[in-house]
Amino acid sequence: MKMKYNLLALSVVTAGLSFAPHAKASFDLQTTIAAAQQEAPITVYAPTGKIVQQAKDFSEKYGVKAVGIKAKAPHIIEIISREALANNVKADVALIEDAPATQAQLLAKGYVTSWVPDDMKQDISKDYQTPLTVVLAPNVWTYNTAQYDTCPITNIWQLTEPEWRHKIAMQDPLIKPLYADTFNQMATNYDDRMAKAYQDLYGKPLKTDESSALCVNLLLNHPLLR
Asked: Where in the sequence is the signal peptide annotated (predicted)?
């Protein structure tokens, strides 16, 4: 089963980054590189440890010294927020996987600026330019192919039945932003389908006092999935 929800990672440039003004001018890559080579090293935050090597590769390719630092989304948001409030910006670029929090806590407050170089705009869908999206990472339900030749269930509500107790694994949605985003999207866009799936499986309507996100809340809070 595949969850058809795209999860976003944001590339944001802090408001204090020295080449931000170039965003309003006609972009020229070589001019930007030459200017950046005359400035202090840049610091890049990202949720993956690969950023350390990527920053080194970037430095070697462009002659612009960069330092990559791995950090989780909440930490990056806190760092940038504190630096902005103290008017002492040290971070230069951040890749943040918690899109809603980034938009509310950084972009909306003007602490960061999302920037897309003019020479890349034609290659990026407009839907992913404001803010700049660099990764689309769908979450999926998967099954153990060593145990099953085909998917062992046909309805997501089957996972709440006794036979699946202790056989389902996922990270805690409360500490992993991507999972929270996934379930929020389920509640926002697929609540009716979740209710229909319940009726298809059990032959009766789903009854609940929940006023919103009822199906997702019930599914996640089911005793067999906790």
From this structure: 1-25
